[in-house]
Amino acid sequence: MSRAFTKVALFGKQRAENIREPLLAIARIVESTGAAVLFDAATRDQVGLEQYPGHDVNAIGAQADVAIVLGGDGTMLGIARQLAPFDLPLIGINHGRVGFMTDISLEQMAEALAPMLGGAYETDRRLLLDGEIRRSGKANYNAAALNDIVVTRGVTGGMVEYTVRVDGVTMYNQRADAVIVATPTGSTAYALSADGPILYPSLAGLLLVPVAPQTLSNRPIVLNDDVVIEIEITDERDAMAHFDMQSYEQLAPGDIVQVKRSTNFATLLHPVGYNFFETLRQKLHWSVMPTDRHSRA
């Protein structure tokens, strides 16, 4: 058994429909354990729960000892980045589609939450990326990412041309639709759709995946997580850098997107017995055999 939680923050997916009742149900479960509920102010205002005081992220980071996130993986990505500097663990309740990180379903919620808040949980620590855009040798933009940092072509279309360096050593020059730097968490997101491998969540590695590269022999590669990756734009065409696909910045020729492991981590909590391979079987439908065409009616 780990320590029990006494102050529980609660976040909900922004602009989601039918989220008020699940949020109230979670709040009641938290209160039934004797813990205090700290509602995220934006969530409270969105669903009209004026009976609970609202708190901003800084107040939650200073007071809460765990946060429950009701939403999909996109919601979890945003909250995890905000709370990472406070080292606040996160419990994800799925109110979205796939739910790799928000792995507890609404149906499982009542059974799973109370034991977890009492200290019966498994800890899953995930690394984050720090991204910096350097222009003329100076930092121009900074952002964190839990899934990935992606350099992609801009609005004018065409391929983006770039040079990749790892710890100052040139890896290759390439033209492609995009290039992805992903964490193990992000290996099941955009990188997977670009034929990248799945990395086990606790693996100390970063994944570099070109998207539709002009040189067809250019393949994904896994690097140590302590390297510094630089992606320099070498063409006159416009390009963009995306951070978890939730924030972006325009890139100019000669800009360098520098990516390295963050000093912060995101800590996800799961019910006792959680298994990553079971998640893959459920979310990616592993072990589901193709229908035998001869048995079709």
Task: Outline the secondary-structure elements.
Elements: E1 7-12, H1 20-32, E2 36-40, H2 41-47, E3 54-55, H3 57-63, E4 66-71, H4 73-83, E5 90-94, H5 106-117, E6 121-135, E7 138-145, E8 148-153, E9 160-166, E10 169-176, E11 178-182, H6 190-193, E12 205-211, E13 221-224, E14 229-233, E15 239-243, E16 247-251, E17 256-271, H7 276-283
Parallel strand pairs: 1-2, 1-4, 2-3, 4-5, 5-17
Antiparallel strand pairs: 6-7, 6-17, 8-11, 8-15, 9-10, 9-14, 11-12, 12-13, 14-17, 15-16
Helix pairs in contact: 1-5
Which class of the largest domain in CATH terms?
Answer: Mainly Beta
CATH topology of the largest domain, by name, is Tumour Suppressor Smad4
- Helix-strand pattern: EHEHEHEHEHEEEEEEHEEEEEEH
What is the count of β-strands? 17
Structural class: alpha/beta
| Uncertain residue segments | none
Q: Beta-strand percentage? A: 35-45%
Name the CATH superfamily classification of the largest domain. Answer: Probable inorganic polyphosphate/atp-NAD kinase, domain 2
C-alpha Rg (nearest Å): 21 Å
Envelope shape: globular
Termini gap? 52 Å
| Annotation field: number of helices | 7
The major β-sheet equals: 11 strands, mixed
- What is the CATH architecture assignment of the largest domain? Sandwich
Tell me the number of structural domains. Answer: 2
Helix content: 10-25%
What's the pLDDT, averaged over the residues? Answer: 93
